[in-house]
Design goal:
single chain; 466 residues; alpha/beta; Aconitase, domain 3; 2 domains; five-stranded parallel sheet; 16 helices; 31% helix
Length: 466
Amino acid sequence: MAGKTLFDKIWDAHVVDEIEGGPSVLYIDKHLIHEVTSPQAFAGIEKRGARVLRPEKTVATPDHNVPTIDQHLAIKDQLSRFQVNKLTENCEKHGITLYGLGHPFQGIVHVIGPELGITQPGMTMVCGDSHTSTHGAFGSVAFGIGTSEVEMVLATQCILQPKPKKMRINVEGELTKGVTAKDIILYIISKITASGGTGYFIEYAGSAIRSLSMEGRMTICNMSIESGARGGLIAPDQTTFDYIKGKAFAPKGADFDEAVERWKKLHSDAGAKFDLELTYDAADIEPMITYGTNPGMGAKINGHIPRESEIEKSNLATFKKSMEYMGFSAGDEIIGKAVDYVFVGSCTNGRIEDLREVAEFVKGRKKAENVTAWIVPGSRQVEKQAIEEGITEVLEAAGFKLRQPGCSACLAMNDDKIPEGKLAVSTSNRNFEGRQGPGAKTMLASPLTAAAVAVTGKIVDPRTLL
């Protein structure tokens, strides 16, 4: 009998029913909600006279459009204030745990799940947010859903879902100095393109992946969606178990030991069949940065923007349009371009390790005059740790300011917008036209690269400053 993939093991264990030639009815272990995609779902439930079936399986927090300064004051923006208030009201009415503004556990939904021990191996997890794939770093099947599906999960604790195909991406070997998890995923997406993962769930494997911390693994799984994939996951190992141990909602004592024994079985068996398997050499990966308007348009930072002759004919129109938007030219060197804004944060890179990396790099240095730098922790816990570890002091001495937790300039649904025509180097996950504000231009990079850009005021290979 052929071995099973990690994905199949988790998926098959959660199938309640199967519709012949159609989707599966999949049981959901944990449902995360925020203020943007939940109000309509709650309204739909109430309209039908239904109730939330298992409120204890849902956790809520506001994150997308919360301000990142003066969070103790009433939210100025009317729509944001309405959505945040509505979330509070809905959670109270339906008995759902809410970590609201000011709560010590509040933060970006995909940052708080892991840091609180809510996210655990073998689970199925959903949220009305595409970057739910982040939780796959723990060996869980986690994916984003739409508002009507949020309503379905609230009412039934199940979802109708077609089973995706399976891809395994192996990254083998040792990473070189200055190369981070963000560089790995930007490299992979530049190779397979922003649509190369469509229809697949990706398992990341290989020695370079296993060498990563949990925070690095989360960065990789977070951006699986940027290749068009349904999600990404990594088999749990000792690194995973050590990270979970002692977290607020992790199993305790003998229960934890029992859980670890179960979790150890969560891996792809030898001989498990994937629909597609790819392997990359870690030594070939260098610090990466995007130059266009989708995350697949990435290059090695000391390389150049592709020439038109290097672009496939079918992609040429998109390429030309993105060059016009970014104000770049085909064949341009990437190094040396002047930058206006640096944003460190988001569910991709707003964790404590990311902030530590930036602080370590900027210590004893000063931010460039021409750069506005926003450092936004992913949660209240990250903010608290940054203050306790002296990270905040280091950043402030270098001219940076630590803001309050939220999605911030990742998607400009709040007050943190990059002004029109300005160029930002961002540690977030998307560089679409207008993603960080109308007319804003975005280059995606690692926190290390962002820190190097902030102190030099231009695109620079961080390895030259290490």
